[in-house]
Specification:
The chain has 151 residues and is mainly α. It is 38% helix and 7% strand. The protein contains five helices and three strands; from the N terminus they run ααβββααα. It has a three-stranded antiparallel β-sheet, with no helix packed on it. A hairpin with a 4-residue loop joins β1 and β2. α1 runs antiparallel to α3 and α4 packs across α5. The protein is elongated, with a radius of gyration of 16 Å.
Length: 151
């Protein structure tokens, strides 16, 4: 789905099912894979909105945020995904105050999100530190290292 405006992104990503479908399709195009062991033998637990890996290891359950820059954040995907959209579609970037006003989060949360999103864009993927993740691309966006990337 092509989201043309911020309002489209906010409305589309306000539904948790849409967030899940979008991230699964972009993060795991060949099917959901356990971020801990790489196993494809996973089961979705609808009640808990997470997956359970059937392989034997210490952390068999994981969510969409596990292993990404969104991990360890109480901020929901309904805020994260429009923030990604907003930053990638603003030619000159945005400030934390602009993000705070657009999404209705605190300025401190907006600052945190922007730093995490810029980290993801610099690494060209959602994944925190290495590993495989979907690439993020932006048009005409220059980061601190003057690296042009796209989402």
């Amino acid at each position: 789905m092509k989201l043309k405006t911020l309002q489209d992104a906010i409305i589309y990503f306000s539904d948790p099912v849409n967030c899940r479908k979008y991230l699964v399709a972009n993060r795991w195009p060949d099917g959901v894979v356990c971020p801990h062991c790489g196993s494809k033998d996973v089961l979705f637990l609808e009640k808990y909105n997470r997956w359970h890996c059937r392989a034997k290891h210490d952390a068999p359950q994981f969510t969409l945020k596990t292993g990404t820059v969104m991990e360890d954040s109480p901020i929901g995907l309904d805020k994260w995904l429009p923030a990604f959209w907003l930053l990638s579609n603003c030619r000159n970037g945005i400030s934390s105050y602009e993000l705070h006003r657009a999404l209705g989060v605190t300025q401190k949360s907006a600052w945190f999100m922007l730093h995490r999103i810029r980290l993801a864009m610099k690494a060209k993927g959602f994944v925190k530190m290495g590993g495989s993740g979907s690439e993020i691309e932006t048009d005409e966006c220059y980061m601190a290292a003057r690296t042009a990337i796209s989402i």
